[in-house]
Model the fold of this input.
Amino acid sequence: MIAHKKEFYGGFVMFIGFWIVFAIGMSPLFNGQNILNYMDNLYNTISKKSSYYIPKVQKEAQEYKGQQVTLNLKSKNPEQSERYAKLFRAGNAEVTVDGLDVKVTGGLGLMLDNMLQDAELAFANDGDAITAKYGMEPKLVIYAWWNALKDAQRDFNKQKMFKEAKIISKVQTRGIEPAYNYYGIKAENIKDKAVIVVVSLVGYVIYTLWFGFAILFMFEGWGLKLEH
Done:
């Protein structure tokens, strides 16, 4: 039995309104996207510039020029082995493939330069240059680098070459990962999107409170109360 009809039905109308707005938001009305995808893309565009660490890592990588290293990588399948071979050979390394075992020998500095050049191209959305270089889709190249670097880091640690493992980790997390995550996204200045950012944040807070108060009014109208 409803104790306070006015309060209950007021909350019920708010509850229905919440889901109507939700249905509208989930419709492709925002440049062909629903509001979640639209806002996700918006925040990706304004966060891209702040994720650009490649020049700093390139500077750190200069320290390894002239250092010769040998890596023993383990791929998951023959196709991945061939991808690894293409990647490292582009950095002037000698590569031997034996099934799933990939042995890489060469200058670490040259390898790092090549990895970061690919990351730079991907971050700049220059996929054509990557495809021309390797004959593969840009994101597949960057993903292959990520896997190769993960394995390279493991092998350097196994060789107790911890300093080298550390620079590999930096290339992976500050070069390759952002390049992969932001590939195809155009960087925007947050100042140019300030109005919509503020409106979206305020709207999110209001929409959340809207649902909370709808439930509160319905429960209180029903006669449920919190007692101390």
